[in-house]
Amino acid sequence: MIPVPGGVWIWIATGHTDMRRGMHGLALQVQQGLHRDPHAGDLYIFRGQRGDLVKILWHDALGKSLYAKRLERGRFVWPAAVDGVVAISASQMACMLEGIDWRHPQATWRPTAMGSE
Asked: Which InterPro entries does the record cross-reference, listed alphabetically (predicted)?
């Protein structure tokens, strides 16, 4: 899990991204394609066309970081929009990185009574 400090925005770059891009190429995409400042401290999440790989670009006070995660099975749930960005919360990002549908997370089973009968 990425330790996201309070006040940091998390943005999903909608559409598909060329996953051959590295840190500088993704920062350039944030600046030119999304018209945002890649050095502002926000997290930007990019997904490849196959949907099983995401890259997260983050610039903190010290420098840029690039995180990558590939799912062994399944695909990351992604917004249907083809252009722009979508803001999500840190808990939604955590769900997404675990392969859970962050748009409609399902509650786990809850007991109906205390103790066993």
From this structure: Transposase_IS66_Orf2
